[in-house]
Amino acid sequence: MHDSILLSSPRFEGNEEKYVKEVLQSPYVAAGGPFLENFEKGFAGRLFPFHVIGLNTGTSAIHIGLMLLDVQRGDEVICQSFTFCASANPITYLGATPIFVDSEPETWNMCPHALEEAIKDRVALGIKPKAIIVVDLFGMPAKYDELFTIAQHYGIPILEDAAESLGSKYKGQECGTLGQIGIYSFNGNKIITTGAGGALVSDNPLLLERARYLASQAREKVHYFEHHSIGYNYRMGNVPAAIGRAQLESLDQKILQRRAVFDKYQKLLKDFEGISFLEEPEGFYSNRWLTTILIDPTVAGFDREQLRLALEKEQIESRYLWKPLHLQVAFKESKYYGGNVAVQLYGKGLCLPSSTHLTNEEQERVVGVIANQYQKVM
Known about the structure:
Strand 2 (about 75-80), helix 4 (about 90-95) and strand 3 (about 95-100) form a beta-alpha-beta unit. The chain is α/β, with parallel strands linked by helices. Helix 5 packs parallel to helix 6 and helix 11 (about 305-315) packs across helix 13 (about 360-375). It contains 13 helices and 15 strands. It is about 40% helix and about 15% strand. It has helices spanning about 15-25, 35-45, 60-70, 90-95, 110-125, 145-155, 205-215, 240-250, 250-270, 295-300, 305-315, 340-350, 360-375; strands at about 50-55, 75-80, 95-100, 130-135, 160, 170, 175, 180-185, 200, 275, 285, 290-295, 320, 335, 350. An 8-stranded mixed β-sheet has the order 1-9-8-5-4-2-3-14. Strands 10-12-15-13 form a 4-stranded antiparallel β-sheet.
C-alpha cells in the first residue's frame, strides 16, 4: 500500500525546534516579547519600508484591516467571489455587507470590468462601497494596475488578501504590499506556517499602531487595565512566532520548491489534451502555492470529480478550487456582479498535491493516475 500524498503539509527542517525551546525557557510564552518582535522585524525587513503586525490568523488580520479602513455597520465592501470564505466573513463581523464580483480568466482574480460595474451600480443607488478586498488566488497576483486605476478614481481603498501569495510579486513588488493594507496567513497549508497565524502589513505607522492596540484588547498604556475601545485578543503568541521566525529563514527556498513542483507537473502533463494550467502573465511572479489544473471534460473524456475520486482511491489528496462565495448559502442574500468566469473555473478546476517536500516519485505517481484516466476513455 502506498503512503498518502497530501495536498500541502508542513515539514519542519530548520531552526523551529531550537527557537521553540528558547521560548519555553523564557518567561515570554504568551503574546508579546522578543520572539514575536524578532519575527515581525525579520518579516518587515523583507518588505521594507512596510511594517508588520503578527496576529493569530489571517482572518483576524482582515477583520482588523477593515476596521482600520473605517468599515462600519451598514457599509458595503466589494470582495472577490472566487476565494475562501475567510476573505469575506470579517465583512459580516462588522455588520457590513459583502458585494461580490467575478474573476477574469487570465489570473483568476478580481475582474476590473466587474469591479467598475459594481461600483457604478452601488454609487447610483447612493451607497459608495467603503473598501475593496482583492485576493491573490493560489499565489497569482491580481491585475493591480487596472484595479488601482478604478479604485483611485472612485476614492475607495484596497485591502490586499495575500494569504496565499507570500513571496509572489507584481511587477517586482511583493504581494501583500500592493494595497493600502495587506494581510498574510501562516496556516498549516501555506508557504510558511506558524501552525496558525497571520500578519497585517502597512507602510503607515499610525495604522499599524492602531492595529496593535485593537489586537491587544484595546488596552491603554497605563499600569492598570484601562479600555476606551472594544478590542480583540488577536496577537500572535511567542511559540508560533518562534516557528515563523525559523520558517522565514527558508522562505525563498520553499518558493523555489513550489515553483519546481509546478514546472514538473506542467512538463509531465504538457501532452495531455484537455488539461491546462494557470499561466504567469508578463510581470507576474507566482509562488505557486498550489498547482491547479483545469480539466475540459469534452476533450479529456473525464471531469474533475472523476479524477479526484481516482486520486483518492490511490490515497492521493486533491481538492476542488474555491466554490464562489456568491453561490454559498451563507451569502445567498449578497449582490453579485459579473459573468460566469468564477463558476466555470470552479466547475473545471482541481488542486494537485503541491508540498515543498513532494518527491519526484510522488509527482510521477500523481501523473500516473491522470494518465490512467485517459487510457480508460480511449
